[in-house]
Design a protein that fits this description.
The chain is α/β, with parallel strands linked by helices and about 400 residues long. It is globular, with a radius of gyration of 21 Å. The chain folds into two domains: about 150 residues, Alpha-Beta Complex (Aspartate Aminotransferase, domain 1), CATH 3.90.1150; about 230 residues, Type I PLP-dependent aspartate aminotransferase-like (Major domain) (Aspartate Aminotransferase, domain 2, 3-Layer(aba) Sandwich), CATH 3.40.640. The strands form three sheets. It has a seven-stranded mixed sheet with strand order 3-9-8-7-6-4-5, with helices on both faces. Helix 6 links the parallel strand 4 and strand 5.
């Protein structure tokens, strides 16, 4: 029994031989700027919790109160009996926060993409996608019968060429807002101009811009002042807002349509009450504490500038995602391992997450990092970087 899966062992050994096999680290306590990883206290440069809200007192209090009132789970999908009043209240609150007509929550950002993209396009249509878009966008596109066209990363000339030549029924331009491996920002203002010129639908995955870009973290649409001009905006509660789940922001009609057609919405149990309450409190915190964003961006600029001064290649980073490029996967693994020995946890990013020759370690800076944390991490980077001849 199981012999027909024998090929798996061979593939695992091949991954190990190429330095591509990774064992998930174990977090031994709360997610924070300092954390216990595999039993060791480290400076944590791998958390998506940009605003450091995973342990926020107001959010924890709200979650506990929701459990007492509603219980720990919903027991059903939204369409049957899994929609509580707090779900719809949160959706209205987030819509107001985003400056959108309506919002629909999904169990994750991945589910939002895989459920929404196939409802918008099909046979006879075309999806025009940035070559470095997130894997969940790629998977969502594969679920459709639409033709797919890829434009070089951030290349607006090639994007326009594809749109100009397209004779399809519907055209959907889809892009990350902030690219998760490089930390650069899509030129949404130019993308929207091209979409309007060539009558295309615009769809932005703003998972890493949520809580980072725009006033009080409202995201990339707010950052470029494009309210009412982006058709579909995917956001997430699992990163800057410290919880879990994704959502789609857009028109009332879009929300109604997705409720009827998006399979990942229809077949997923709804968010547990504690999570809904914590997300709601997180939006309040974002509105009440603008200094969190000042701290996030001050830390980001400081750390990037110091890395560059040491001689590291930080790619095209414009956000708290700051890669240190190594090129070879084995070097990225070595850099990560040696930094961990010195009390700094930073993830190696290797193929297939990035191209074979584009390996790097990916630093993610948060509002929770203290200056002494960043300085200690920079000292470790300098020592290991010289040892590995990266600087």
């Amino acid at each position: 029994m199981g012999s027909r899966l024998g090929f798996i062992s061979a593939e695992i050994e091949e991954m190990k031989s190429k330095g591509l096999f990774k064992v998930p680290p174990i977090l031994g306590g709360p997610q924070g700027a300092r954390a216990i990883v595999n039993g060791k206290e480290v400076i944590n440069l791998s958390s998506n919790s940009y605003l450091q809200l995973t342990t926020n007192k107001k959010m924890k209090k709200a979650a506990i109160a929701a459990i007492r009132k509603y219980g720990v789970g919903t027991g059903a999908v939204r369409q049957i009996i899994g929609t509580m009043d707090i779900h719809e209240e949160l959706e209205k609150k987030v819509a107001q926060f985003k400056g959108a007509e309506a919002v629909l929550m999904f169990s994750s950002g991945v589910a939002a993409n895989s459920g929404t993209i196939p409802t918008l396009v099909g046979e006879g249509d075309v999806i025009v996608s940035d070559e470095l878009n997130h894997g969940s966008i790629i998977d969502g596109c594969r679920l459709t019968k639409a033709e797919r066209k890829i434009y070089p990363h951030l290349n607006m000339e090639e994007l326009e060429k594809i749109l100009k030549e397209s004779k399809h029924r519907r055209k959907l331009i889809i892009t990350d807002g902030v690219f998760s491996m490089d930390g650069d920002i899509a030129p949404m203002d130019k993308i929207v101009e091209l979409a309007e010129k060539y009558d295309a639908i615009t769809y932005v995955d703003d998972a890493h811009g949520e809580g980072v870009l725009g006033k009080n973290g409202r995201g990339i649409v707010d950052h470029f002042n494009l309210h009412g001009r982006v058709d579909v905006e995917m956001g997430t509660f699992s990163k800057a807002f410290g919880c879990m789940g994704g959502y789609i922001a857009g028109t009332n009609d879009l929300r109604s349509y997705l409720i009827q057609r998006a399979r990942s919405f229809l077949f997923s149990t709804s968010h547990p009450p504690a999570t809904v309450a914590a997300i709601s409190a997180a939006v309040d915190v974002a509105l009440e504490q603008p200094k969190l964003f000042d701290k996030l961006w001050n830390n980001t600029k400081y750390f990037r500038r110091k890395l560059q001064k040491l001689g590291f290649n930080t790619g095209n980073s414009q956000t708290p995602i700051i890669p240190v490029m190594t090129g070879q996967s084995a070097v990225a693994q070595q850099l990560s391992s040696k930094l961990f020995e010195k009390g700094v946890y930073v993830n190696p990013i290797v193929y297939p997450m990035v191209a074979m020759d584009k390996a790097r370690v990916r630093n993610i800076i948060t509002a929770g990092h203290k200056r002494k944390d960043l300085d200690a991490a920079l000292a470790a980077f300098e020592e290991v970087g010289k040892e590995l001849k990266l600087i």
